[in-house]
Amino acid sequence: xxHPLFGLLEAIRLNGxxxxxxxxxxxxxxxxxxxxxxxxxxxxxxCLPLSTVVHRKTGGxxxxxxxxxxxxxxxxxxxxxxxxxxxxxxxxKIKSKRVSKDVVIHTTLQMN
Length: 112
Fold this sequence. Notes:
By secondary structure, this protein is mostly helical. About 60% of the residues lie in helices and about 5% in strands. It is built from six helices and two strands. The chain has helices spanning about 5-15, 30-40, 45-60, 60-75, 90-95, 105-110, and strands at about 80, 85-90. The protein is elongated and about 55 Å long.
């Protein structure tokens, strides 16, 4: 099933509006680690195990990385611990989490 956005873009194109497609490829694991480290305000070395799993689960697609982190937080796998005053995560739970390989479907499901 196609996402409704594709139909909208096709209608815009058919009406003569110029559209430009920009391909954004996946980012490297080190970049995901930098994003996770910056987001959680933790040293990169501490975030590497989490970042490695996040990169594997998301394929390094930046929008999916961000959405995945938000989902982990919402589901309680990535939480801020008031006692230790830092972010903590359940790596085994995150490793076992099933995720859609289709970024559009995953993101759409999260928005609904």
